[in-house]
Design a protein that fits this description.
- By secondary structure, this protein is an alpha+beta fold.
- It has a single domain (19-356), classed as 4-Layer Sandwich (Penicillin V Acylase, Chain A).
- Helix content is 18%, strand content 31%.
- It contains 7 helices and 22 strands.
- The strands form 6 sheets. An 8-stranded antiparallel beta sheet has the order 13-12-11-8-7-6-3-22. A 6-stranded antiparallel beta sheet has the order 14-1-2-19-20-21, with helices on one face. It has a two-stranded antiparallel sheet with strand order 4-5.
- The protein is globular.
- Mean pLDDT is 91; it is low at 5-21.
């Protein structure tokens, strides 16, 4: 009984965390034959409308981290300019790319994220976890630099920020990829920093990264190859396949983080080799479509009181060529920012909405058939 009770409590927590798909995200990396590195991610945020903008942050922009309770943390100026997507028009960035091509995705990590504790006297090396995105984008160009420097910082949780985000806890982990193709997952669990080499290039939400990797062993039998075409005869009865697609029978089809992790892994691992960035971007957009959550099919709560989990926007980062693409729930036309064309020498941030207006940009081709 002494062993059973902790196990049951852990199981209940795990089930509750996995079931919470209203704040779900999926990310992955694709590599092309020409050396291009393509990052893709979706943002499912069901707690409220994220009202996101794309923000240009110039070089040498000043930051000060609020640790909560009237305590001020470290301040810094960023070395690198960057583009990032915010939430609620605030300087809290969920995704972004800097001028060196370093790309970061912030993914929800409920039930497991627990950051380092505040220590008096160490304010100058402490920042809140919501500021970690802008710090990484502004200070580093490679994953190796992050591995060296991040252990020297204290990343703490500022509970005061929950009020700014409508009571939603900022339980987060981070996936970072550089122009060398190196990728890491950054997680704070029980107050301890864990930096995982993201060798398979995939991340979703809870449980932690090492659990997700171990869970792949449950699907080692999956293959993209279906059964050999033709009729099989058993006990005098002929059995003919209904159609193609049997190879990945058993691939999870729900929207829980472990299932999305497994799907993202197999979709990227079974991708036909892509010649260049354009081909990889096309493939990434097709893969991302598999993780779109239509409004209504994921509802967290009770029958008469629930939040919807749905895809608000998706991103593709062409890391080598430093191009940042996105589309949204309201307008699926792909848009792009070429970071090499931007001026990062300004003295203030510049924001533009993800959508100029929230309507589909549909092109009418009727005139191409008109003879009038």
């Amino acid at each position: 009984m002494k062993r059973t009770l902790p196990f049951l409590l852990s199981l209940i927590v795990l089930i509750a965390v996995i079931a919470n798909s209203s704040e779900a995200c999926t990310s992955f990396i694709l590599n092309a034959k020409d050396g291009s590195i393509i990052y893709g991610r979706t943002c499912e945020w069901g707690a409220f409308d994220a009202e996101s903008d794309v923000v240009l942050v110039p070089r040498n922009y000043s930051f000060v981290s609020d640790l909560g309770g009237g305590k001020q943390g470290m301040n810094w100026k960023n070395k690198y300019g960057f583009i990032a997507i915010n939430m609620l028009h605030k300087p809290f960035y969920l995704d972004g790319m800097n001028e060196a091509g370093l790309t970061i995705g912030v993914l929800f990590f409920p039930g497991y994220a627990k950051y380092q504790s505040f220590e008096a006297g160490k304010e100058s090396s402490s920042l809140n976890n919501a500021d970690l995105t802008s710090y990484i984008l502004g200070q580093f160009r490679t994953v190796d630099e992050i591995k060296t420097n991040l252990p020297n910082l204290r990343v703490v949780y500022n509970i005061d920020l929950e009020e700014q985000f409508k009571g939603t806890p900022a339980s987060l982990h981070y996936v970072v990829t550089d122009s060398n193709g190196n990728s890491i997952v950054i997680e704070y669990v029980e107050g301890i920093l864990h930096i995982h080499d993201n060798t398979i290039g995939v991340m979703t939400n809870s449980p932690p990264y090492d659990w997700q990797i171990n869970n792949l062993r449950n699907y080692s039998q999956l293959t993209p190859y279906g059964s050999v075409p033709g009729t099989k005869t058993v006990e005098g009865i002929n059995f003919t396949p209904f159609g193609a697609g049997a190879g990945l029978t058993g691939l999870p089809g729900d929207y829980t983080p472990p299932s999305r992790f497994v799907k993202a892994f197999f979709f990227t691992e079974t991708s036909i080799p892509m010649e260049n960035a354009d081909a990889a971007i096309n493939q990434a957009s097709r893969i991302l479509d598999n993780f779109d959550i239509p409004k209504g099919c994921v509802r967290e709560g009770t029958f008469d009181k629930y939040s919807l989990g749905y895809t608000q926007w998706s991103v593709i980062g062409d890391i080598k060529n430093k191009k940042y693409y996105w589309w949204t729930e309201w307008n699926r036309q792909m848009r792009v920012i070429d970071l090499d064309q931007l001026n990062f020498d300004g003295d203030k941030t510049i924001s533009i909405p993800l959508d100029e207006e929230r309507v589909e940009n549909i092109i009418d081709r009727s005139k191409d058939f008109s003879t009038k």
